[in-house]
Amino acid sequence: MIHPSELISAYLDGELHGPELAQLVDHLGGCGRCSAELEEMQRVRAAVRSLPIVEMPPGVVPEADPVLVPLRSHKGMWAGVAAAVVAAVIAVAAIVTPEPGSLTVDELNSRFGARASLDPAFGPAKVVVPPMVGE
Amino acid sequence: MESIPLTWEEVARVYGRKIYNFAYRLTGDPDDAHDLVQEVLLRVRRGLANYQPGSFEGWLWRITRNAFLDDVRRRQRRPTAPLPDEVDRWDRASTESVDVEYARISLGDDIQKALLELPMDFREAVVLCDVVGLSYEEIAQAVAVPIGTVRSRIHRGRKMLKELLA
Prior knowledge:
The structure holds 2 protein chains of 2 kinds.
Chain A: H1 7-12, H2 18-28, H3 32-49, H4 77-95, H5 105-113
Chain B: H1 8-27, H2 30-47, H3 56-77, H4 95-106, H5 109-117, H6 120-132, H7 136-143, H8 147-165
């Protein structure tokens, strides 16, 4: 039996499509070895993704401009300032319509940040292992 | 067609933390990660003027990866002791915040050590996928290899990690 081992990580990452996806799902239904490898790879993948975010020491990048940068990390006394700035940004955004086709920093942030593990919501894939056949 | 952030400062704010984490997980060293972020930002600043609209993230991560590899090659040619101004960059942060940060980093010590045991090609692919969050296509653009190679490197990297963490 040929074991399509290298398809397993792509499957976990949602990077497998079409005939390859069907082939692997079909194979997993009857192969204990590959099903076990799938579970192992899922654990390793989750472990790497659980690595904590490392915060940069001050001064590595230019000081944040509060009008352009989301302020979710600001705490304490800065929370009030942040709220005021957010309110101001919302007010300005309601007046100013962005140029069609342009990509703003906020859009980049949400588009890129949504899938990255630097986002707390970025968890391991939920994978359903098909039931074994004949095992 | 995709527009790009207007200035390198904006690139720094949006991507600086991700570049820092990429470098930190690849090297395990905060000073190396610090240096890499600044080198990448310098290259972005120089390169933005000639940027051709396309995949901005592919462009940025290609620059990041090339800067990292250049640094590795430079170190291999010229091993050096730390310069005086590199002795303790964490001086700029408070003692308390360093302690907190160290405790947070230590949570992943075993995994970080295992990552550092991987050959660079595999480590890079796993970090770009699982730490930075790039798609296979974006990794292929950044590393300049076919998607099949990315797929293979990620899977083989994870298999090696499994053995190292056992």
